[in-house]
Amino acid sequence: MNNLPKVKIGIVAVSRDCFPASLAVNRRKALVEAYKAKYDAADIYECPVCIIESEIDMVNALKDIKDNGCNALCVYLGNFGPEISETLLAKHFEGPKMFVAAAEESQNDLIQGRGDAYCGMLNASYNLKLRNVKAYIPEYPVGDAEDCADMIHEFVPIARAIAALSSLKIISFGPRPLNFLACNAPIKQLYNLGVEIEENSELDLFEAFNKHENDPRIPDVVKDMEAELGDGNNKPTILPKLAQYELTLLDWIEEHKGYREYVAIAGKCWPAFQTQFGFVPCYVNSRLTGRGIPVSCEVDIYGCLSEFIGEAVSDDIVTLLDINNSVPKDMYKESIEGKFDYKFTDTFMGFHCGNTCSKKLSKCSMEYQMIMARALPEEVTQGTLEGDIVPGNITFYRLQSTADNILRAYVAEGEVLPVATKSFGGIGVFAIPEMGRFYRHVLIEKNYPHHGAVAFGHFGKALFEVFKYIGVEVSEIGYNQPKSLPYPTENPFA
Fold first, then answer.
1. pTM beyond 0.90
2. β-pairing, 426-431 with 382-388?
3. Residues 153 and 186 in one domain
4. 176 and 44 fall within a common domain
């Protein structure tokens, strides 16, 4: 399933009428050439209309980029720029937008060749705020053709996430499990973000599942599961039911996504699921996530939303894990201390029953859910995908609405260490610099739930910008601050 948009950024140059328009046009051409030389040319479209100080130019440019299928916008200040028409372009373009400005090229051309876009960017930012127009402005938004090409490329994953949210439907099944109040999901902010949600009962899902009994497609899905599991296919008899469930979800998506283009699922996976369906859904969740359809456990709607954002930013599979347990001191001393530059309190273990895609596990096997099997017959707890998570760079992050509808988020970059977990489930030994302080003064202090989304790579910069763009106040975006930067609630004597 194609569950993310393809970003196409329309690049529109702007010029003040008292500056040579040719300066903006030629710089735009150089920018486009620089981008195509380094990145995918399909990412961008060069609008031939250079907006001077004319609202009609703005209308013509807007029509041109829309007609050419652009779903994102880059306003390029080739010189000082016309603050009214350039801002109106951003205002009337329905999609993510950014502003960048041209640097001066040479000390030998600072008379007729000086554009003053450095100055114009200040007026652009003033006018954007004046009209309440959101736009991404890079950390240092002024550069030559190559610099601006890099900035636009950095905007691509940001734009992809923002564009995707406006066409996302989250499908949920059931209320959160009893005693999982942390998975409560105030709905208001979903609508503020442009996200639709379809809330269903587990009974609706169970009915649909039963209707898929003896579905002729089941054998083919089972074969695909067998191929994926390989030697780890330890519960072969449960595969037909899992295949039946997978088809149920895929058909539900097609029948219920409505006018929305993209879908994510928040499912209730316990306590009644096992006794009624006769298995646990973990492996199917992992398979759908591997196909680009994020699935969260325990009806964690904001966890599901977080996964989707991470998938859009990384253009890769993500997962959702419990920030689960401390690393035993003997494991730290034997396998981490002296081998990696992390303190003991920088480490923890991220875990969930079996929802992580096989592609993100070092080795996988089909097992039963050991925690649930402590109170239930083992045969109804089969269906987890177990294995150690692949070592490498990760970003731990989450977007959350508080009960009083305040958007909060956190982002922390770290890694999964190549250390055997000696445990069960989909699990890894994680290390994040200053995790102990982050755990106390962000996760606990800001009342985050136990689930964190995991993107496989370092994507903190892009995620931070996405959260800002969609309306999270910067003061509400937590991160793992270095020791030299104390948290407001941190005891200075600790």
1. yes
2. parallel
3. no
4. no
